Amino acid sequence: MKTVTGDLKKSVDALKKLLPAEDILTFSFTADKGQQFTCVFADAITDKELLGEQVVRALRGFDGEPKAKNVAAKLSSPETKTEKSLQTLAEETLAGNPVLLFEGMDEAVIVGTKKVPVRAISEPSTDVVVKGPREGFIEDVKTNTALVRRRLKTGELKIETVEVGRRSHTVVAVCYLDGTSVAVAEAVKRKLQEIDIDVVPDSSYLTHFLASRPYSLVKQVGTTEKPDIFCAKIAEGRVGLLVDGSPIALTVPYLIVEDFQSSEDYFVPAYRATFTRLLRLFALFVAIYLPAFYVAAQLFKLQLFPIKLLLTIAGSIRDIPFSPSLEMLLVLLVLEVLNEASIRMPKYVGMALSVVGALVLGETAVSAGFVSTPAIIIIAFSGIGLYAVPNLIEQTSVLRLAMLLVAGSVGTYGIVLVTAFMIFYLVTTENFGSPLVAPFSPLIGRDLRDSVFKYDLGSLETRPRSVGSPNKRRLK
Fold it and tell me: Are residues 279 and 325 in the same domain?
């Protein structure tokens, strides 16, 4: 491994050879006593004003022995360290930390004057609340850890960093409370260190490696953009991961009941929180099963409809040229295309597209006799229910399509069989020792107080047993 030598020119040339990019600059200056210094830095992500203040000005009067520790002691920067390896110095330079080389010195000094452009802290668009904190994570891991430290002012909060990615060297901060989730934290760090991938641009890349069943349809890693939710899950005994470059934090172990909860549930009365959670669960069932049952009833079990509703439906579908399953599938695909187009297009165009798609296109299709009015209404109800639980949209949209195809082929028997298979699959899935559908399977009575149901704060005196934290008590 190449290291820094006492020859300043050779050391700078060797470092520049590892960093041939045009935005890697060098700056040389001479101290009052004639000593030669050269600073190597990345132009776009280095605070040059701070570099001049803390390094150049501080070393103008340097007259000490040519040793790295003497140079570092003279600097006015709180973040300094010494290093010999040229490879490590190159990585620090690419991270935004300038490298200071000195004639006659066989070590370099790394100065922490990184300045990465970041956006301001704002409310995340995926988790809007009426009551409660409105701060959201951003793409800078240091800012995100500061938001966590702000809420958990305790020495028991451990934040350990792991670099993932051969080329990106993405920093992943593993956050946990000492004494509550040490075993899970060690397992998470071990999995992160085993990842062999070149680039990790976002936290979603890590979910594949953290899941016990990487190709599963269901989620196995929790996600959030809000620091208050992140800290609450850590306090319950989970382990959190903050990935540099991503505003979405990860938490493990994950329970499926988490996605039916909202941070606002803890700032409103318990009865209101219970009602909204049950409403989300009902909306999810409507989103998945309503189109499938409508098609199955039309094809195989017309007697399931009340007589007046049956007459209305019969009058609506009389002249439709498609079969019930094909008609519903067509409407569903059109809705998915409209949804995707409205998300990807600019906001001022996306709103107009949504109105045109929902009103003009839907009304025209019904008037032309391509689809029936009940099909439009059912898909609309299903789409609204889908967005009541936004963290499960990807999974439930696929399940809805699968249920629709099975209902059009086999009928209600197919729906029951697929449902039974899904229940069996969910019950047998666990990650980091926690069953996915806990506290319902296995049944943990005390954890039901904060599941789909919400008890008052005084009843939540222990941490969830579903998470498996050895520190049980949290409220005396």
Answer: yes
